[in-house]
Amino acid sequence: MEYSAIENSYFKIGNKHKGLLGWLTSTDHKRIGLMYMYAIISFFFIGGILGGVMRTELARPGQDFLSAQTYNAVFTVHGVIMIFLVVIPGLAAVFGNLFMPIMIGARDVSFPKLNLFSFYIYMLGAVLAVISLFIGKGAPDTGWTFYAPYSTQSGTNVIAAVLAAFVLGFSSILTGLNFIVTIHRLRAPGMTWFKMPLFPWSLYATAWIQLLATPIVGITLLMLVAERLFKIGFFDPNLGGDPILFQHLFWIYSHPAVYVMILPAMGVITEIIPTFAKRKVYGYKAIALSSVAIAAVGYLVWGHHMYTAGMSGTARWVFSFLTFIVAVPSAIKVFNWISTMYKGSISLEPPFYFAMAFIFNFMIGGLTGLILGSLATNIHVHDTSFVVAHFHYIVFGGMGFAFLAALHYWFPKIYGRMYNHKMANWSCVIIFIGFTTLYFPLFIIGLQGMPRRYFDYLPQFQTGHFISTIGAFILGLGFLLIFINLVRSAKKGKITTSNPWGGLTLEWQIPSPPTVENFEEIPVITEGPYEYK
Amino acid sequence: MSNGKHHITDYKTYAWVLVILLFFTALTVFVSWFDFKALTIAVALIIASIKVTIVLTYFMHLKYDYLVFRLMVSMVFLLIALVFVITFFDYLFR
Questions:
Q1: Given B83, B91, B92, which is nearest A252 (Cβ)?
Q2: Is residue B1's pLDDT more than 50?
């Protein structure tokens, strides 16, 4: 019976075209989500290899196999690929597309063709980003932040990389717009706002950030191009510009972009915990509204990236105050996750382990964020590897682990097959050990004064760097295990039931994999999404 | 009428909107001759905001649309205003 579910699913039945063309022209949200997933995982591996190259160079002081200029290019391209091609679209474009319409009881998003168009814009931006490595005078060396005035003067290929980020922004905006309209207009009958699952809630808050913040970085990057090409003085003091203006404009987008990465991650965790604890979510409304609160307040804290840049003292304490405020709704979520598990009948399955790793990493990332948000301590650790560690704890330890959690949670729904649990558990443990070994030493050497983005360093930092490099290889091994397990299981895994975890949200009430339009009849919702008895 | 159904605005209203927009455009040019010091940008933005509000209200029919859409647009304006205010905590006190 279950094998016929695969035969009747969106995998086998597409549009009028067959094979690859059927996928490339499909407006089915699930196919688009899966195409995003394959693209994003491919870029993740490229970015990951670049990160591994960096770590290997840093294993001991002095030059080993990268020149200083190449090192600058490697960390820039690593950042551009990981930020703009992987973590910003990450969860929203992949699992948002795959499951948000199903979770709200819809057959597709509101604008399916626009959804496919967003994917193609994403791919166009990705191609531009890759081209920027090879054309002109070498890969950009500015860091992913493109800080002016250096980015207005660097002889490397900044314009192509900036245009790539600009184009990718459009994809993000259109996806956000599509999700907002879908959530407003296509919820199943009876699904009021507070009967909607919390992953769509997190996507709703994310979509508003995508829609409202992304245009700002688009305009900023165009200003940068205008300054490089036409010598219009926006940011270069020699032309009458203000370099801090660039930082303001860049971070007005790029800090909320961190919430574009982490809010859907929080949404994923909020789905996984009640399913495996078999408990109603504790404080449903608090979690839903805290997503909106994070999106709103997170918009106003960008200046904490600029404490040492020369801002006024008044602006510094205002931003510090607002930064501490945004920690409150994040803490509400963590409190509610823990409370949901309290007295639950927990089943320890791979998605749950990844979710627990997320909470652990996110707590460390969040609390070290407070050290950076506080004015006095920020001065000490600004632009050190402490910041690199904090950022990776949030983005990789948070968003990355949530992506893996989501992948293991919804894998049976996507493919209709189950993976090897033992191998998944081991890969979770290895990745967690590798991650911690890689990034935790960076906190310590950062506190000791190791600057970020340095190609060489003093001998006193060698132990930390060496341990960190070992961690990178352990991490790589963990990913190899996951890759082998999931690729093999997608093809030959055991056929699974439609609801292997006993979840209550709508995606678990339809066949695995889902059919083309998800529901034969749109369901009528009469109760909340997590009514575990 | 605020039920979101089609609404046809008469030419007279459009003409008035045009006149008001032209007046504020002239005002933008006029105030640029004066130095308001720290308030220069605030004055320019206030005039521009009034013009945008009029365009949204009449040309984009927000006046006749559902309350929820008016609230959404208002929230966006509030957010942009906050971003400006917070940015100027830097520029005004530097």
A1: B83
A2: no
C-alpha to C-alpha distance for B54 and B48, rounded to whole angstroms = 10
A219 near B CB under 8 A? no
In a domain, A421, yes or no: yes
What CATH number corresponds to the domain at position A473? 1.20.210.10
Question: pTM for the complete prediction?
Answer: 0.94
Q: How many Cβ atoms sit within 10 Å of the Cβ of residue A90?
A: 26
Tokens read off for A372 = 């950076």
CA distance A259 to A265: 9
Task: Give how many domains chain A has, as a whole number.
Answer: 1
- Would you say the ipTM is above 0.95? no
One-letter amino acid of A169: G
**pLDDT of A17 above 90:** no
Tell me the pLDDT band of A2, cut-offs 50, 70 and 90.
Answer: low
Count of helices and strands (H, E) across chain B: 3, 0
- Structural domain boundaries in chain B: 11-91
**Residue A503 belongs to domain spanning:** 2-509
Q: Report CB contact under 8 Å: A296, B79.
A: yes
Residue A351 exposed, middle or buried by CB count within 10 Å (0-12, 13-18, 19+): buried
**Chain B residues in contact with A212 (beta carbon < 8 A):** 76, 79
